[in-house]
Amino acid sequence: MNTMAPTRPTQLYGRRVRLSTGPAAAAEARGQVRAVICDWDIPVDLDVAVLLTSELVTNAILHDAGQNITLAVRCSRGHLRVDVYDTSCLMPVVMDVPADAEAGRGLMLVATLSDEWGFFRTPAGKAVYFTLAFQPGLGEGEGEGDGDGLQGSGVGTVSGEPPGDSPSPLNMAAVPATRSPRGDGAQC
User: Fold this and answer.
1) pLDDT tens sequence across 177-188
2) Phi and psi for 54 in degrees, rounded to 5?
3) Cα–Cα distance for residue pair 71/12, rounded to 1 Å
4) Domain range annotation of the chain
5) CATH architecture assigned to 13-159
6) Rounded distance, CA 37 to CA 4, Å?
7) pTM for the structure as a whole
8) What is the CA radius of gyration of the chain?
9) Per-residue pLDDT, 144
10) At 181, is the secondary structure helix, strand, or coil?
11) What's the rounded Cα separation, in Å, for the pair 118 and 1?
């Protein structure tokens, strides 16, 4: 008897949303990422994805004087990727803060809980991103563990260069593509 693993649609998904940099931006970004994970049946830890999104959006708001930021979410090649674009030219730095500090741990969380994170310059400023690998056996859009949302894959890698397939605000599709660019039927 042959059994087959459940398959995912062979589509790339992407969503891009412009957010005002007001007090509600982080909550709106969390809601967008939560909806994407649930709507697209992405097997990643929902709690971790929402937490890391909140950290990137909060940093963009705190360190950028612009009126808007852009949240870009996509699913391809077995990963969820979240990018936050802003107009600041200052590149992010992971802080070495004391254990009792009240602030400064956001990027450390991103580095620890994501599979990869990084940043790159854009014509308007910069983008900071993280990726989470699909977790086989994890129910779609569900967290794992005891509900604290703090279980990850260890320390993620960091890059200061845009990956070859990084979405920019200019080429990020807002609608599903029909095939994987790899041409090998990569599934989302």
Assistant:
1) 322 232 333 333
2) -60, -40
3) 17
4) 13-159
5) 2-Layer Sandwich (3.30)
6) 23
7) 0.70
8) 16
9) 41
10) coil
11) 45
* Six token digits for residue 160: 């200061």
- Is residue 10 classed as helix, strand or coil in its secondary structure? coil
- Cβ proximity of 20 and 64 under 8 Å: no
Residue-wise pLDDT for 61-106, tens only, equals 998 878 999 999 999 889 999 999 999 999 988 888 777 777 778 8
Given a cut of 60, is residue 47 above it in pLDDT?
yes
Distance CA 47, CA 36 (A): 13
**75: Cβ contacts below 8 Å, ≥ 6 apart:** 12, 13, 14, 36, 40, 42, 81, 188
CA 166 to chain centre: 12
**Amino acid present at 12:** L
The mean pLDDT of the chain is 76
The DSSP element (H or E) to which 92 belongs, if any, is none
Burial code of 106-142, b = ≥16 C-beta within 10 A, e = fewer? bbebbbbbbbbbbbbebeebbbbbbbbbbbeeeeebe
Dihedrals phi, psi of 17, to nearest 5 degrees: -135, 130
pLDDT surpasses 80 at 110: yes
Contacts of 97 (CB under 8 A, 6+ apart): 103, 104, 105, 108
Q: Residues 119, 92: contact at Cβ < 8 Å? A: yes
Q: Which of 13, 49, 10 is nearest to 31 (CA)?
A: 49
